[in-house]
Amino acid sequence: MRDGLQHAADCKAPSHLECPRFRRLMNLAATGAIKGAVSNKQ
């Protein structure tokens, strides 16, 4: 979490959606590959 926030603060991409690292992390979270990721399944 800390590293992700630090990257977001330092990232030079015009938007988060244009940042390859942010997009990779979002994809991992969406698939549940990141332990503790919140799922939309109910």
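Second entry:
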Amino acid sequence: MSYLRAEDVLPKNIIEMIQQYVDGENIYIPKKSDCRSDWGSRSGIKKELEERNSCIFADYVSGKTIPELADHYCLSDKSIQRIILQCKKK
């Protein structure tokens, strides 16, 4: 995340108003809620995890055991069970 100088983007009266609350500190101004991206949508990790989970479920359906899947995908047995349950619900 890059920082912007307040002097470059805000009017002087707004800066003076903000200085009443925080003076010389860094603050984070969040995006409007309607402008936020869903988790993982920008990086692509959400899609990767969905594909991995589909593979796990397919391997489970084809007969692999939960401990085998946990070892192969480097996950805990509980994580594999949770993924299988989620895929069954879809």
